[in-house]
Amino acid sequence: MAADMDVGPPERGRCVGNPLFRTKSIERILADSDAPEHRLKRTLTAWDLTGLGIGAIIGTGIFVLIGTAIVGDAHRPGAGPGIMLSFILSGITCALAALCYAEFAAMIPVAGSAYTYSYATLGEFLAWLTGWNLILEYGVACVAVAIGWSGYFNNILKLCGLELPYWATHPPGADGGIANIPAAIIVLLVTGILIVGVKESARATCGIVLIKLAVIAFFIAVGTSSVDTANWSPFMPFGFAGVGAAAAIVFFAYIGFDAVSTTAEEAKNPQRDLPIGIFASLAICTVLYISVAAILTGLVPYSQIDVHAPVAEGLRMVGFKWGAAIVATGAVAGITSVLVVMMLGQIRVFFAMSRDGLLGPWLSGVHPKFRTPHHATYLTGVAVAIMAALIPIGEAADMTNIGTLFAFVLVCIGIMVLRYTKPNHPRPFRMPFMPVVPILGVLACLGLMYFLPWMTWIRFFVWTIIGILVYAMYGMRHSKLATRPSTEQSETPRPA
Q1: I need a labelling partner for 412 at 20 to 30 A (CA). Which of 18, 189, 315, 329 fits?
Q2: Residue among 174, 167, 134 at smallest CA distance from 353
Q3: How far apart are the C-alpha atoms of 68 and 306, rounded to whole Å?
Q4: 44: β partners
Q5: pTM (2 decimals)?
Q6: Residue 72 is inside which H or E element, if any?
Q7: SS3 of residue 78 by DSSP
Q8: Residue 123 near residue 22, CB atoms below 8 Å
Q9: Chain centre distance of CA 469
Q10: Cα separation of 282 and 102, whole Å?
Q11: 7 vs 483: CA distance, rounded Å
Q12: Taking a C-beta distance cutoff of 8 angstroms, is the pair 164, 372 a contact?
């Protein structure tokens, strides 16, 4: 345990060595999170965390993207009924990463998720890249989810005999569109909830989770009786290439369990409850996804599945029009909860990076009454609302996926580094089968990244280059580690 402690009085001055690889000790990370000016309110239980996880996971992926994954698009083949295998592959990939997340979250129960974990293990530069890509993950996902919410909301209005004008539901340049007003409004409403408090956000999310779980259970119960097993043949019409490409798409459907770790500073008992929240939400969603995929591909031939509203349209095509309306309502609820948790994750990443000096200090301000990061919430809410209203997002899911998978790779590598550098540090949750699990996690994530379109890779590299420039011009010079004593930046004690 001696290796886990800083020894000797701190020496003032700037850090020595390459600043790109300076790490932040676990002790310093925990101390910073407990500073009064940055301290968040601990209110979340294991039930709250599980609800937040399910709320983040079940949404756009299962209600919208499953259609494209089954049928395919201009860039890649579809999986057909083999979509069930695609969900299994993506689920296994997330499970491997989740084991690493759980150990990290229990050891370092602070905001920031993969960014904070990378800071403690891989150095400041890779931590910055991780945080920068988490911004990509959550930010782009929030915009895409808000636009998807608007589309489903408009469909429900049409079912009720109402219809918003075209100009108010489409962005500029879309055949007379001016702004997607419903998308902006839902973002601003969620922003208000998140400012008031994370407990209130969790309660709202859990309520919505119950609704969409009931809707999914309804789809499974109603759809089972109409399944024609002949529709499952051919099972993999485009071979494993289609299954792999679909797995890279539906990976989006699992994104969200990692957002649970961003709320670590607001959990009552993070060492126990964070692993529970991560694994429980991931396990429940995996079972539901495979069930929905099996029934959907059994209702109609895979080539006839609607790519815009596949689950609702699947019921309508077999004669359950009333069921389609119920599913559409559940989709609105599901997408709302996804937006809540994705924005919550984005805000906490901003907060953590700002607290470390890598982003402006304004973003780490905490509301004096609600004890929430209200400045980061304002920025996230306004930015996402404007983009959701004015910008059409075409490749949002792919961009979100590649940013998330990159973060997962670094988390898997980081847990191996920490096992080597801090073997005796207390681990309330200890990942089994070390180093097999993290190595398999890295390979699985890289495998899914391989199946993403090449344009996604180009956009990813452009985003990464922009991040490097921001770090070089601001983060490197303003990092709090740049002026802290070297003993606070290293886990290695000085000789007596």
Answers
A1: 18
A2: 134
A3: 8
A4: 267
A5: 0.76
A6: strand 72-73
A7: coil
A8: yes
A9: 25
A10: 12
A11: 19
A12: no
Q: Is 492 left (phi over 0), alpha (psi -120 to 50) or beta?
A: beta
Q: What is the residue whose two structure tokens read 């879309």?
A: 174
- pLDDT tens string for the chain (496 positions)? 333 333 333 333 334 446 677 888 888 877 776 666 656 677 788 888 888 788 778 877 787 778 889 998 877 899 999 999 999 999 999 999 988 988 888 888 776 678 888 888 888 898 898 888 888 778 888 887 888 788 778 877 877 778 888 888 888 875 778 888 999 999 999 898 888 766 666 666 667 778 888 888 999 998 998 899 999 999 999 999 999 999 988 888 887 777 777 677 778 888 788 888 888 889 999 999 999 999 999 998 998 887 767 887 788 888 887 787 888 888 887 788 788 878 887 888 888 888 888 998 888 888 888 777 888 889 999 999 998 888 765 556 677 888 889 889 988 999 999 898 888 888 888 888 999 999 999 999 999 999 888 888 998 899 999 999 999 999 888 888 876 554 444 444 333 3
Tally of CB atoms within 10 A around 16:
11
- Which structure tokens are listed for 377? 């919430």
Which SS3 state, helix, strand or coil, does residue 14 take? Answer: coil
Domain 2-487 has CATH 1.20.1740.10: yes
Residues 297 and 198: their CA atoms lie apart, in Å, by 38
Put residue 176 in one of left, alpha, beta given phi > 0 → left and psi -120 to 50 → alpha: left
Supply the DSSP string of 329-394, one letter for each residue: HHHHHHHHHHHHHHHHHHHHHHHHHHHTTSS-GGGG---TTT-S-HHHHHHHHHHHHHHHHH---S
